[in-house]
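seq:
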Amino acid sequence: MVERIERDAGRFRQIVRGHVKENLRKYMSTGELIGRQGKDWVSIPVPQIDIPRFRFGRNQGGVGQGEGQPGDPLSGSEAGAGPGAGDQPGQHILEVEVSLDQLAEILAEELELPRIQPKGKAQVISEVNRYTSIRKVGPESLRHFKRTYREALKRQMLTGIYDPVSPRVVPFREDRRYRSWQTKLIPESNAVIFYMMDVSGSMGDTQKEIVRLTAFWIDTWLRSQYKKIEVRYIIHDAAAREVDQKTFYHTRESGGTIISSAYELCRAIIAQRYPADQWNIYGFHFSDGDNWGSDDNQKCAALLREHLLPASNLFCYGQVAAYRSSNQFLSTLRAIPEPEKLLTAEIPNKDSIYDAIKLFLGKGK
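struct:
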């Protein structure tokens, strides 16, 4: 019975994994996953599957058993007829939990993302204790309650004392199981992510939501590749400043746009805090493409060529379309001959996030 339960649970996990992969594009374009991510987990709603059952008994008269006309209701009154609240059940939703590590694996499989090969000399060897095995002895603080219960249940079933009518399972001393650890040496590589966003008056709530969703999936993947991740947020209109995450996603200005101010600030932060030979550096900039004049476009291109691209593993620009947006800045970046390090994508709506993520992370940088 225990083995059958474990097999059924395993099949259910595979069904859930398949459902997430099948609907990954839809999840990427909604805020459903992010709103409830907590510390380590995200909730993914899965439509409830109702298995048909046959009920045996005396046949009753009515529609399906006797006289009836097309369109006749199956009950005495039509569902939803008349004003007021309805009395019919709605669709059932089952919420299952998927860890962020599992989500990163699904993301890698579906988008065919290569593993990242970290650069840099500053790789620190650290000792990590992982609880990967089970023992019959150990401190009570490490008792594995599920495994202990299972051992007690197996013993009762084998000895014939298990009563399904009154299923009372009491573990004995020999049933107890304890978690045990193994020490592993793991090389750690440091990584820093720079998120830069235009917050001028032309950037609306829809564009910021696209940025938020795109950043969530980038974070999910990069955190699965690096032990230590630092994130820096930069907002800009005509001037740039470093902010926290909440300010990054909720600030809106009304001024103009000078993109080079954000690139200058990013360059300064890298020079002060993140030496390129010790850190894996990722830059992601999001804007609607409206910049103040062609001179600033060329200044941005120079900053990328001379400073940001040489220091970075990857620099990505996502143009989130807005009303009357221009493609001049995007064209300027695409003219820079750095196809391996500089990637650009147009993200006009949430449905485009899937393709942008695949483009940004598909190089394995």
